[in-house]
Every structure is written in C-alpha cells, then in structure tokens.
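#struct-help
A.M.: can someone run this one for me? Single chain, 410 residues.
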Amino acid sequence: MTPVTGAAFVLATLLKVVIGFTLLLVAVVLSTYVERKVAGFIQDRSGPNRVGPIGLFQVLADGAKTLLKEEVAPAQANRGFFFLAPALALIPATVLFAVIPFAAPLPTQWGLVEIIVADVPIGFLYVLGIASLGVYGVVMAGWSSNSKYAFLGGLRGSAQMISYEIALGMSLVPVLLLAGNVTLPELVSMQQPYADGPATWGIWFLIPLLISGFLFFVSSLAETNRLPFDLPEAEGELVGGYHTEYSSMKFGVFPLGEYAHLVTTACLVTVFFLGGWDIPIWTGDNIRVLADGTVVGDPTWWKTLLTGAAFAVKMASIILVFMWIRWTLPRFRYDQLMNLGWKVFLPLLMVYIILTAGLVFVLDDAGMATGPVYGLVLGAVNLVLLIFLVFAVDRGLLIRGASTARRREI
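D.P.: on it. Structure tokens below:
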C-alpha cells in the first residue's frame, strides 16, 4: 500500500485539520477541569463537583460566564495590539499541533493516510520556530495595555521565555545526534525496534538521553509559564501580570493559550523522548513509511486506534506531572530563575552536548551497532552524570533558598 495522493490527499489533510483542531480544544478544556481536580486532591478538597456529573460541566459554565462578562479596555491602550495579543498567545500552540504524529498510519481504499497534519521535512526546526512566537503575545499584551503592572509582567515574561528557549533548543541537539533526522515521524520510527527493515535504535530516547529529557522538561515548564516558573503572572507581586487589564473572553484566551501550550509540550515530550505512539514490548505497531513511499510493517485500522490511545496515555501522564509540580512546588525568586537558565542550564548543556558527541564517536569507532545495547550504554553514562549533578554539584548551592542564603551570610 502506498500513501494517498491527489484529491484524496487534499481531502484527508482537510479532515485531519478539522479533527486535530477539535481534539486540541477538547484536550485544553479537559485539562482545565483535570487541573482543578488535581489541585483539589492535593489540597484535600473536592474541586469542581456541582455542575454535571463529578463537576464535569463546570468548564462549560466557566466558559459561558467568561463570554457573558462585560468587556472593558483601558482608555490609553493601543487598541490594535491590545486585541491582537490574546490571539498571538493561542495561535502558536495551535499551529504547532500540525507537525505532531499521533498514531500509526491508517490504511484506506485510497491509500495509506499518515496521522499527522503536515509531515514537513523540517519538523524539528518548525517546532523551535513556532514555539518561539509565544513570547510576542506576552510582550504585546503587557506593552499595549499601557499599565506599569502589565508592562512589568510582559518584561518578565519575555526575559524568561527567551532565556529558557535557548536551553529548550539545546536540549534537543543530543536527539539529533542520535537520530540524524529532523522529521518527527522519523524520530518516532527511530525509537521502535524492527525485526527486519531499516536500522533503528529500538529504545526510547529518554533512556540514552536522560539528562537531555530532564532539561527539556524543566525548560518546557519555564516556556509555558507554569509553577515554579510563573514569574510573568506572579499574582502576589504584579496584581495579575501581563494580562492585568484584560477582561471577558480576551482574558479567557490567555489561560486557553497556556493550556494549549501545555498540551502541545506534552506531545513534544512524548515524540522526542517517549517513543511517540510506540507501544513498548509489542512490535506489531512498528509501521514506517520510507522516503520512497515504501511501507514497512502491517498497517491496520485497529493498530491506528491502539497507537493513538498509547500516545494519549503518554501525553496525559506528562500533563499530570506538570499539574502535580504546579500544586506542589513554590515559585522561584526571579534571581534564582535567571541564574538557573543562564548559569546552570546553558553551561551544563554545552558540556553535555560535547560529552554525548564524544561518546557517540567513541562507540561508533569501536564498531558498536546502533540498537538497544548502544542506547543502554549511553543511558548508564547519563544516569551516572545525573546522580553526580544532583548529589555532588548542587547540594543547595546553585539554587538555594532564602533561608539557606541567610544562614550562610550569618
């Protein structure tokens, strides 16, 4: 079976756009509900429980309330940019959804349909380029409001997102060293073991690149402005952050954009480090479309559904970890935030990239074939390095709390 072409390809793409956008909105709405339930569980309370079964319709009531609220705009605001900023906060996460492969290809009577909206050959660069646009919505909202509180929140947001965007990109360089490809479906295929066919790693990249995955996850927390990196909002310090002057649905778009970034980031972590839609141990889902159109594996409709469910489970697990961290850890001080990004992450990632490249060169020179054993060797080195970093390097010195600093001064 060959991939779809012609009119069938156009129709399939349009359907994938509609279905993908719908699923993203559903995931965003459910994330807001789950966040409140997780917060209630951690704080020993019920959370939403009055509107609908187990409070499931609370998000619909909140949405209706936001739409019906009075809309107020500051008299001195720059109206054009003031209205544009919420859209810029939401659109990048939505557009980023286009290059994420969600499941194994689906066989149809017209050909094989890949479950990705746009299988662009520069998917990795597309992710970095589009993800960096989110800062414009934050800066524009703070500046156009003509409010010192909102402007300070916008400045904090821009400084934070630019700082951790560098670490976010650098943490993916080791993935490219191993995969040698920037197309996201190929990255998923590289993490699958094939009995016969193209040579792959056959192991999720989180194992050989444990430190890279950890730093990418932490940088993603900072990029999505979630605790302990929510300094652009910091309600206790800045009233409400960059969206202080917003009301009604324009204000509601900012939380929607935050949760859309949360969902998209969870998808990226799944693709880059957790094998994408790969189901561990089972090799029946190992399906790959080569550059010449040749299909490796046996695609069926039920494998598409099964791999899609596996992707959803991984994505939901990452989202739950994000929420768990938000309702568990306190907020960083701003100097701690910047020190972590510039004085810890950047030097650490530069050294880590050099070490990874050197180790890959040594193992290749020794004749070790690409595969799970190769990955486990890299994983063992990463584990030793991670233990050294956590217990030997930090020890409360690099990111120390106010009480620790005061004790040392005394």
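A.M.: thanks! The chain has 15 helices and four strands.
D.P.: also worth noting: Residues 192 and 313 are 18 Å apart (CA to CA).
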